[in-house]
Every structure is written in C-alpha cells, then in structure tokens.
Amino acid sequence: MKRVSLVLALVLALVVCLGGAAEVLAQGKVDLKMMTGPMGGSWYPLGGAIGELIQKEIPGASVSVQPGGGIGNVMAVQEGKTDIGFGNSSSSVDGVAGRPPFKGPTNNVMQLANLYPQYFQMVVLADSGINSVADLKGKAICPGPKGQTGEQLSREMLQIYGLSYADMSKINHVSYSDGVALMKDGHAQGFLLGTTIPASSILDLATNKKIRLLSIPDDKIKELQKMNAGYLKRVIPKGTYPGIDVDTPGVGYFTHLVISAKLPEDLVYKITKLLCTHVDRLAQVVKDMQGVKPADLALNIGVPFHPGALKYYKEIGAIK
C-alpha cells in the first residue's frame, strides 16, 4: 500500500508540474530584446516606454531594453542578437539592398512601424570660428558611437567636402552626453548627431555655451542624396535652440522600428496593435509622435512589413 501511495503521489506531482508547464505555454511566455539608441537621445526613453507597454498589455511577454544605434540595431536583428530595433529609413534600406556597411541583404529584418522624422545636426560653439563643414578640418569631433546612422552620415558629410576622419585631430566615438561634456570642456569642437528636435543633449550644451548649427547648401544635399536616396531635406526652424535665430537647412530621415522575421505572426500583430492604439502615450515621451496616426505608422519606407504587422494594418485600413 505504501508503494502504491508513493506512486500515486509521484503521478499527482507530475500532473501538477505538467499542468504548470502547460499554463506557462498557454500564456505565451516570450523574452524579447529591444535595441534603442544612446543615452541623451530620444530612442532610449521611447524604447523603454514601448517595452513597458508590451510587458503590461501582452501576458507572458518581457522586454529587455538596451542602448544601440541605427545601423548596429539592424545588424543585430539580422544576426539574431536582438528581436526589435530602432532604425533609420536611409540605412535600413541600404540593408535590404545589401549595400555597405552591410555585408549582404538583411532578409531577417522586417518593418514593424514608421515613427517620426529625424534631423542630422552639426553643432559647434559660436566663438569657434567654424562656419561650415570644411572648417572642421583639423578639429576634434564627436560623430557618435560606431554603428549609428548619424555616425555614417557624419563620414559621408565629410566626404562630400573632400574630408575624412584622417583629416580631424581626434574622433570621439562617445555617447551624446559624453559628447556634450567634451564640447563644454573644450576637448571637442564639433558635435554631430542624428535625432529629434530639439535634442535634449544640444539643449544641455546651449544652456552653458553659445552654439551655432552648421547648415548644408542644396548642392551638397543633392550629393548626399546621390549616395543614399533615403536622405531627405529638412530644416531646423529658428528658435529651436537658444541663440539660433535663423532657419538651418540640412538633411534627415525617418525613425522606424524593425523586427525579426522569425517572431510569430500573432505576437507581432499584438505589438503592432499596441503601437497603433497607444500613440498618444508614446507622444508623451517623444513630442515628435504627437499627431501621428496609424496610417503614418504603416508608411512604406522600403523595408518589407512583417506579416503580423501587415495583417493589422490591412485590418484597420491603414494599408489597402
């Protein structure tokens, strides 16, 4: 009888364990990784808000949010090192085509949602004597960490002026906040970044130092567009930063979210639905999201949509 009781106890324990496992599976437990942008930019806090939203609204989902950069994030999704990544339209389209700096077509990278416009901004101190990109020759600059779209655009910007990193006295591949510190201390003379306007890091610098934004003439913008058709002319309005009383023409691109093609359609459908139905909440984190509609999230920027995202966008009529 004792042996029978023991067997029954083991069977019951097994049933309980299997039941618990079945419950976990039924809940759809999934651990997601999301790569955003550097500290001081708009991507990191927005990524945190999106991650919290997913964890709160999708049972069993957890999201680990990490800093990153546009190009590096796309590469990470392609290589399976992350599941969701912030990207920039210009460099992500390069990935689809397999153009440098990508080693081949990023066929594991799919479109989740378009978000808002980004601006490439080149900041110098007002008393630096630097009035154009050409004047950066021989100076120390902060073009952002390697793997960021802004860092690649910094190299391309120098290129159309006949310059390269080799012509600079020093290249500081540091975060936005560290770049501001170097500018304040006089250890860098140029701060180049791609982000929203106004950028919190530039505002920080402008509260301590008088700044100037370098503009890009139309002929140079056209040269950049020949290098990458994803670059768009954008103008930073006067008054965006303290002391800037003229409009500053330049270039930019779109921020968007890419997602791994390997994620289940149902999960991506739910994430897409969350983004579309909580745009107002995201706009509280990044003001550039204000006024964004589901049709804007569904904008085709040249990266194939994940089937789960496409299903939701078609369901609500954002994509015909």
CATH class (first level) name of the largest domain: Alpha Beta
Q: Counting H and I runs of at least 4 residues, what is the number of helices?
A: 12
CATH topology of the largest domain: D-Maltodextrin-Binding Protein, domain 2
The percentage helix is 40-55%
Under the CATH scheme, which architecture of the largest domain would be assigned?
A: 3-Layer(aba) Sandwich
In whole angstroms, the N-to-C terminal distance is: 69 Å
Please report which band the strand proportion falls in: under 5%, 5-15%, 15-25%, 25-35%, 35-45% or over 45%.
15-25%
User: How many whole angstroms does the radius of gyration measure?
Assistant: 23 Å
Order of helices and strands: HEHEHEHEEHEHEHEHEEHHHH
User: Which class do the helix and strand fractions yield?
Assistant: alpha/beta
Query: Which whole number gives the mean pLDDT?
Result: 90
The biggest beta sheet reads: 10 strands, mixed
Number of folding domains?
2
Fourth-tier CATH superfamily name of the largest domain = Periplasmic binding protein-like II
Catalogue the unreliable spans. 1-27
Number of strands: 10
Morphology call: globular
Question: How is this structure best described in words?
Answer:
Strands 1, 2, 3, 4, 5, 6, 7, 8, 9 and 10 form a ten-stranded mixed beta sheet that branches. 44% of the residues are buried. Mean pLDDT is 90; it is low at 1-27. With 320 residues, the protein is an alpha/beta fold. It contains twelve helices and ten strands.
